[in-house]
Records
---
Amino acid sequence: MGTLDTGDTAWMLISTALVMFMTPGLALFYGGLVRSKNVLSTIMHSFIMLGIGTIVWVLVGYSLAFGPDKFGLIGDLSMFGLKGVGMAPAEGSTIPEILFMAFQMMFAIITPALITGAFAERMKFSSYAVFMVAWLVLVYSPVAHWVWGGGWIMQLGALDFAGGTVVHINAAVAALVAAIVIGKRKGFGKEAMHPHNLPMTILGAAILWFGWFGFNAGSALAANGLAAIAFVVTHIATAMGALGWILAEKLKTGKPTTLGAASGAVAGLVAITPAAGFVGPIASIAIGFIAGILCYLAVGLKFKLGYDDSLDVVGVHGVGGIVGAILTGVFATVAINEAGANGLLYGGMDLFVKQLIAIGATIGYSFIMSFIILKAIKAVMGLRVSEEEEINGLDLSLHSENGYALGGFSSGTLEHTVAATQTAPSFAVKTAPASE
Amino acid sequence: MGTLDTGDTAWMLISTALVMFMTPGLALFYGGLVRSKNVLSTIMHSFIMLGIGTIVWVLVGYSLAFGPDKFGLIGDLSMFGLKGVGMAPAEGSTIPEILFMAFQMMFAIITPALITGAFAERMKFSSYAVFMVAWLVLVYSPVAHWVWGGGWIMQLGALDFAGGTVVHINAAVAALVAAIVIGKRKGFGKEAMHPHNLPMTILGAAILWFGWFGFNAGSALAANGLAAIAFVVTHIATAMGALGWILAEKLKTGKPTTLGAASGAVAGLVAITPAAGFVGPIASIAIGFIAGILCYLAVGLKFKLGYDDSLDVVGVHGVGGIVGAILTGVFATVAINEAGANGLLYGGMDLFVKQLIAIGATIGYSFIMSFIILKAIKAVMGLRVSEEEEINGLDLSLHSENGYALGGFSSGTLEHTVAATQTAPSFAVKTAPASE
Amino acid sequence: MGTLDTGDTAWMLISTALVMFMTPGLALFYGGLVRSKNVLSTIMHSFIMLGIGTIVWVLVGYSLAFGPDKFGLIGDLSMFGLKGVGMAPAEGSTIPEILFMAFQMMFAIITPALITGAFAERMKFSSYAVFMVAWLVLVYSPVAHWVWGGGWIMQLGALDFAGGTVVHINAAVAALVAAIVIGKRKGFGKEAMHPHNLPMTILGAAILWFGWFGFNAGSALAANGLAAIAFVVTHIATAMGALGWILAEKLKTGKPTTLGAASGAVAGLVAITPAAGFVGPIASIAIGFIAGILCYLAVGLKFKLGYDDSLDVVGVHGVGGIVGAILTGVFATVAINEAGANGLLYGGMDLFVKQLIAIGATIGYSFIMSFIILKAIKAVMGLRVSEEEEINGLDLSLHSENGYALGGFSSGTLEHTVAATQTAPSFAVKTAPASE
Amino acid sequence: MKKIEAIIKPFKLDDVKNALSGIGIQGLTVSEVQGFGRQKGHTEVYRGAEYKVDFVPKTKLEILVDDGMVSQVVDTLTEAAKTGKIGDGKIFIYPVDDAIRIRTGERGVDAL
Amino acid sequence: MKKIEAIIKPFKLDDVKNALSGIGIQGLTVSEVQGFGRQKGHTEVYRGAEYKVDFVPKTKLEILVDDGMVSQVVDTLTEAAKTGKIGDGKIFIYPVDDAIRIRTGERGVDAL
Amino acid sequence: MKKIEAIIKPFKLDDVKNALSGIGIQGLTVSEVQGFGRQKGHTEVYRGAEYKVDFVPKTKLEILVDDGMVSQVVDTLTEAAKTGKIGDGKIFIYPVDDAIRIRTGERGVDAL
Ligand SMILES: Nc1ncnc2c1ncn2[C@@H]1O[C@H](COP(=O)(O)OP(=O)(O)O)[C@@H](O)[C@H]1O
Ligand SMILES: Nc1ncnc2c1ncn2[C@@H]1O[C@H](COP(=O)(O)OP(=O)(O)O)[C@@H](O)[C@H]1O
Ligand SMILES: Nc1ncnc2c1ncn2[C@@H]1O[C@H](COP(=O)(O)OP(=O)(O)O)[C@@H](O)[C@H]1O
């Protein structure tokens, strides 16, 4: 067993909390981008992943991803229900083993949540839930095992500090498949589908940025110089992503946008994720800036190619993730992290090729598996709401709720309530009248 | 004196900040649930508790709760104004004593803030303020002393890791009393009183969830395995609370709701609070899930019983708190925490009975004292706003403010301003005109 | 080189993240206060500072502020692009040097962002960007050097724990100059310019409060007793600022306001900033309370004096900063911090005079330099948007965006999209129709 | 056919709608408006600056009815919307040329 | 001159506007309203309490046209707004006394 | 009695209201609308997708006045709302059959 270090543990406790906070942050980021009639259903897609992801991870996911390796492909079920995952540090670690489990759990929650941006505003809630469970078990857990759990990509030596392949490319490919399989929203490519609340999206982006310090710097698993450099390059790349995107906008249309700044920041965050513990500040300037510009150019592709990736998961997380994974193969240096490797710039052709292999394998596996899962669900229970439900909005249709009631009159009446008891004596007589 | 540990101190610094953040989180959680004309008054109820709670705690509360024990019932005033509360760790502690004080202060702030959900949309602001001060001194401080400050419940050996009795049951009972004494909102039980901004409520729930890691895992007072397990079970129970509530909804009405997910999460958080440092992951699945379902069934009771607990403090914090305190007596195990005890499941009948005693005592004391305080305030200064003020909304009536001005025209004119000086020379002449 | 302490490093990692989070917090605080047509442009002013401030700081700012001292006035460019800023702790430090750089970077981001409240709702975006870059290099970096980087004020021995002069007075003076040079908003002093979303402002204030724990307690650069006391007095002063402001309101107009509570909290935060590591709890009660009242009286001055400081940067940060810097000279005591000095109350006339000198120098330098920079920009490229752009709102005029689309119909049509490729084969044919 | 337009206090909408349903009115259209009239507005205060707001939130109802129904609707409306305080609002009656139901193309009173 | 008022389903606004542009209509005014009619409302559920909401979001169009245009506008509107389901809405026609263009002071049909 | 309806630029509301108060108008009703007309809309851009928005925010005023006041109100309105640029808006005048004050039951001009 390892020896617990309180400083490392303190950092990992808060990092885990920070990564948890990212998922509701994503809920707001996505929620602000849809039309107001779908704000809750979109938020729910992320928020309830905190429920779904947790139970799947605790029961089987952690064991599949981090259990004893089988053929380089997957763990086993020996840690089903967290059996044997203890409060003491594992060998070679300085933090409680169960805390490492929790940190990884938060990744398993946000990754599928990212996908939901692709099918916002039209997916059935039950089908969504089934898809998420299946995807976590069949796609996320194996890929996490490959890259971080001792699987073949880890053995190969490709680098992914905090999840460029596992999280972003993986989710974005599933998103692309989902957008294609589920089909376009009614009116896509013709009607304006304005974001209904951009301040909410900005808030979401801010929470993502804030939480991402836990995501990336927490991936050092200790409070040390490596965490510090990961923190710094994360921040710089994010800042440069925002600048890159709005500069590209300024050049193309003359108007930098607030949504562009937020989107560019996320692009920068995504791109630096695989590189965070392997590159220095100057490299992070380049990574963020390039990602910001390329993602800006990429988000328009859906209109050209005709798939409706509603909230640009492919354009931002897919392109950003690939850019980041490739540039990790360019800018990585053992000067920053001895456990890493040198990238192209430092003569490491090897690493560059390994990065391409890791990217390719993730894309291929995620594409095929996501396609099979979605087609199966479509066949069994359908994926989409009815046209009328789509027109009325998913909040009312699926959840019987309204996001906002800002107006001056409500005019509804109480019809019925659910309660533990239906026949209880009323002590209403004892309550005061409406005004004293 | 104890020896300071920087890791423990780092964790407690951030935990304290996290618990502070919960109170504005609660403000948003509650604020989104009321009608838009009362959003600010509702937010204010929580927000200004950061002011009221702080000064009361600094002056007398901390001393009453954690000062030298008198008859197992209360501390004394020897630490009035934090006299003698120093920067060094107390004996047996690894964190600055003043930091422990601050951590506890944040609990003293959020607990009364929880109550405010019961009387939202109709209480006079001055009466609210008086009630909060009195309740903190006369109810919260003694009960905190009983359970954590060396008082009789602590001596008895009942377990409450982070505040199931002190915080949640205590607040919920006061809420029930307040709802009954102040009376129903005009239109309650007939008109629809829709939440006006559910995304705001979700954001509030997310901040609560995030902050609760400080609340529960911070209650370990160190960055160690105990903090880690408290963190993990907190998260799992919350996730399961959300799932439990929406599953119950699905079964009862066919539609899972976003508000249900958020409410269930809070129910899970409440229920795991007393148990957090005493139970393992599997127990936390049960605790959260049961709390989610029972709280869902409990929130409808107010309509049956005829009290208007506007934002369901009783249904969520009362029922959740009792469920948690009881289940702590079932699932607690010394395998997790040697300083704890074994619950029913591990043969600990003892603990179970002690838990019931602690619950009963808290309910009884809080009920009687809250009733006396509220009746006294009602007699002296009244509790409710006038009917017209209630119709126009408390934001305008009590605070001369409007939550939102989203429309295209405002049409008001400046009449008067408050300023330090009323006769200052104008240098307006030097300023540029409206457009260059 | 120093020896790394994981606890200190953990605290500084999270403190740095907390200070980063303050800037989007400020964006929301400010964003809620403007009219809805300007919400995004106002948010952008703060948000994109995360981009601008980062690149300026990484390239030259850090080196100018913390590089080897030249004549007590400024650093040099020897650390251009963070050259030589490493992952190991510097001599005498326990945290990675690059982490210290990052912590300081967050201050360099939020300080200019504070200024933007003065010229909200009318400034050209390009001019804003140029102003920010110039101000960071020519004003912020030197003053930071004077006070913290080994410059003359540091040598003099004036105290500024976390930025009363460097951050708040400095920014507020620039804000005053900007308000005067750019001129009043159309309708200022006559029309009502209601905050459009006060819950957003409250949320912003809450994030600021939360983040400020990193700002002030993080300025201890370690997780120790000093950090703890800085944390505690920060919280107390903030709470008292909120109470002070609403009490003053209650006396003057009869109605305490929610915005008043939030504004008073910020006033308290500002005032305690220079004092945080030098004063005890009782002093912090006084500092916060006095700041809350004085800032309340000060915000009306702009109407009397005729400058349009839209969001009261001068009234809150200027007055609060000066109150704090002066009261540091009154309440500071070596009993709290041996590295500090005794204030007036403890017989330290010296310190009091030094504080006045530091305040005076900051005001004078910031005023003159800001004036020159703004006049130069005005001459070269203008500062204001056109009258029509101002009427239509900056969101549409400058950013082609709308903050909200809450209504039931949108009615716009897609005209054109930007994409990486303009001629890609469509696989739209493969996508499903709008409904299954 | 006549159009009856009523400007009422928002919190009275439920009562009015129910009262009108009670006399057989099957359709109406509602919108949010701001009124300026004898009822005085209110004051808002932000950071010490007091603003006088003249407009009062009101709800507008529009009901098209056959001529024969007019007086009954007016009476019912008046009764249900009245609080007796200034600002209770107005009822306005306008002539109508024709009405068409989009779904069926029906015209005149049949379209209502 | 007549005023044509149409209460339609919100998602039909684009189609209707385009259809009207197509027959030469150059100006109209739109607002958000809530309708009560044969089309039933919906249920909302918050923490187990089910609320019946009778009002349905609708969009109101107002178009002033020369008398000669009325029937063409009505036909075009009817066609573009129709889905064939309950709640498609109504068209109401009112007499108008005069119209003035603020910018120029033009009156009558010229002002439209 | 006539109903005068004006569609104006939102930022002109204050001026118009004050001008009307100046000539003794004691009551009016205001609402937010979206206008489509000669004044062109604007473009919004979200993630590289440019949307053309045809509607322009406008404010609608409704004022019921005695026949004798009509021309004075129209003139005052025109003057106060005019900027001289396209999109200043319109004034429409409609016949009114009757008006009732809910509070008192007063009818006709007395009800205004
Ligand atoms: N001449 C008018 N034209 C149009 N609307 C009016 C007129 N006078 C009053 N109103 C509307 O009727 C509402 C109520 O009028 P008010 O004078 O306040 O009270 P009362 O209805 O008791 O006379 C106003 O808020 C306004 O919306
Ligand atoms: N008598 C009426 N007066 C005013 N508006 C009406 C009237 N009847 C219906 N409406 C409006 O027309 C809308 C559609 O009417 P509804 O009865 O639901 O369906 P349909 O148009 O198919 O007959 C309603 O929502 C309401 O806004
Ligand atoms: N025929 C019409 N019917 C109803 N409203 C109209 C009509 N024509 C214009 N409007 C309204 O008047 C506003 C101003 O008209 P517009 O043609 O833009 O400019 P102008 O008033 O200068 O002629 C429009 O935005 C619309 O709200």
---
Amino acid sequence: MRTKLVSLFFQNMSEIPSKYYTLSKVAASLQSVIRREYSQYYWIKAEISRLNFYPKSGHCYPDLVEKDHAKVLAQMRAIIWSRDYFRINADFVKKTGRALDDGMEILFKAKLEYSPTHGFSLMIVDVSAEFVLGKMALDKKLTLERLKTEGLYYRNKEVKFPVLPQRIAIISVDTSKGFHDFINIIDNNTRGYKFFWMLFPALLQGDGAVQSIIQQLQQIKSVQHHFDMVAIIRGGGGDVGLSCYDHYDLSSEVANFPIPVISGIGHSTNETLVEMVAHYNPITPTDLAYFLQQKFDNLAVGIEEIQQAILAYSKDSLLEKNNQLSDFSRIINSETLSIMEYQANRLSRFGHIVQHSSLLLLEKQRSKLDLFIYNMRANSSRLILEGPQKVVSLENRLKQSVVSLVHKNEKDIKHFEEKIQLMKPENLLKKGYSLTLFAGKPISSTNSLKEGDILQTQLFEGKIESKITKIRKK
Amino acid sequence: MSKEKLNYESAVAELEQIVKDIEYGEISVDDLSEKIKRSAVLIKFCKQKLKSTEEDVAEILKDMSEDK
Amino acid sequence: MSKEKLNYESAVAELEQIVKDIEYGEISVDDLSEKIKRSAVLIKFCKQKLKSTEEDVAEILKDMSEDK
Amino acid sequence: MSKEKLNYESAVAELEQIVKDIEYGEISVDDLSEKIKRSAVLIKFCKQKLKSTEEDVAEILKDMSEDK
Amino acid sequence: MSKEKLNYESAVAELEQIVKDIEYGEISVDDLSEKIKRSAVLIKFCKQKLKSTEEDVAEILKDMSEDK
Amino acid sequence: MSKEKLNYESAVAELEQIVKDIEYGEISVDDLSEKIKRSAVLIKFCKQKLKSTEEDVAEILKDMSEDK
Amino acid sequence: MSKEKLNYESAVAELEQIVKDIEYGEISVDDLSEKIKRSAVLIKFCKQKLKSTEEDVAEILKDMSEDK
């Protein structure tokens, strides 16, 4: 813009007007008009394009501007006298966490003043911290929404945090107390952990910080394989100048960063957007250092645990295996013994059955033989007894039959004797029967007789001779 | 007639014949006496035979009893 | 008559035949003595046989029992 | 009678036959003695067999007990 | 009988058969002695086998215990 | 039996099989000795293996501790 | 085993796998020694890694200038 004004000035150099006022006259006129017309204090909204704070005098000469995007609608110089500035800035810092600074849009109470030597200026007597605060909050809210909408908010958080966060790209300044605290802790940790760090110097606050940090982030990105993480470290700067960390450009750069970004900005106010999107925000550099140390501790413990676990599990496993072998031994022993016992009992049982059954069998046979003997004895006796009976009976029959035979014969003989006795002739003659003889021979028919034959008759006592006188034939 | 030839059976048979002869009168008086004499001899023989047999049996049976 | 050929069965059979013959008068008085003498022999033989068998059996059975 | 051919089974079978014969009177007095003598032999044989078997059993079981 | 062919399983199987035969009286007295002697051989063999196995086991388990 | 082919896993597998076989009576007394001998070999092998592994573990962990 | 390929993360992952394998008995005794030796290497590596770094600023600066 300045360049443009200068060129315009040189273009108009050839035309010289006839009438003109002295500058002082114009200035005096302006001064009186302004004193008259702008006697009051006004609340005015403008952007501080440059604060122009002069530390020696303590006065500020801010360049104010109003823009519509890139187009400047108005610009004006302002003055904050030393006494006002300290009051205003202290209040401002106290309320907003930032000092009045370049590029800040503010609502201020001022009186328009014109000085012939210094020109127009707005004498600022008060600045509304609330306005800036509201503005900042709004901006931050919008930026936050944008980050979320664009899916950036969680992006860095989603980057896997390295298991071993050992190589750190530090964005800080060599003069930062936070930085020194940080490296002091990590370089001198009592456990002997070794960190590698490299400082990428950058502005850490104010508007310049955004670009400065982004630039370093890009540097780091180009050699990201050398690093596990980025640490943005600020410290000792109080809460002033932190608004850069709410800046969209920086926040999105951080969110988009391919390796984890850890913030250790160190403040006591609200979390900035950078801190929000950062992978992790321990807030202070010291905490960050301790966080890393803790990570290492955890790793060391993890390794220790693994070692112990391997030892323990190996021992367990070996113990278990040993027990299994013992079990095998025990089972083999007991089962074998029980097999032995079972088999021994079985053999014993076989032995007993053989004995018992054999003896039983022999006993049975013995009984059978005894029964034979018994039967033989009984039946032999019977047989032997039957014999004499039969013989005796035959003997008796013999006796009887002989006796009866002899008797019968005696009877027969007696009968004959009797019969013959009866037939003796003397016995017939005695009964009166007589025997007639002819020629000395007994006759029993007339056949050989004729009348006149002499017959002799034998009687029981004496004989008679007689003549046949008549024969009567039968 | 000699005794030697005699036995109980034939003696009894002869006796039976004699009795039969006499009974049926086929015999002469002369013979009759003869026959009767013969009968007496035969009967005597038979009786003696029976007696001796009886004695024998008694004797034997007596022996048997004693053997018992 | 020799004893060698005798046995209890045949002796008893002979005896039974003799008894039967005598009972049915199949024997003449002439043979009777002889038959009775024979019977005596047979009876004696049988009795002896029975007696000896009984003794034998008793003896053997006694032995068998003692063998136990 | 030679023992060589004897075995318990046949001995018992023979004994059974003899006992049966005696029981049913299938045996004459003449054979009785002989049969009884034979029985005695058989029974003796059988008893000896039983006894020796018993001794075998005892022996074996003694062995088994000692082996334990 | 030679031991070469014997093993515990077959010996026990044979024993079981013998025991069964004797138990159910399926055996004649003539065979009994033989069978009993055979049983004794088998039982002795089996016991020895068990004993030697037991010794083996004891030995092994002793070794195992010492190895601990 | 050569040890070359043995490894712990196969040894344990074999042992498990043997134990199972013995437990379920799948092993005859005839094979028992052999199996038990085999078990002893396997158990010995396994124990040695465990022992050497245990030593390895101890050694390694000792080394690690010293590295601290 | 060459160290070139090792990094802390893969080393830890490998270690965790080994721990898990040992814990769940997924490792045979045969492999255990080997695994434990490997663990020792990995643990040693991890422990050393915590206490050393090979990064070099000059190297990085060189890389940065090359990138530009």
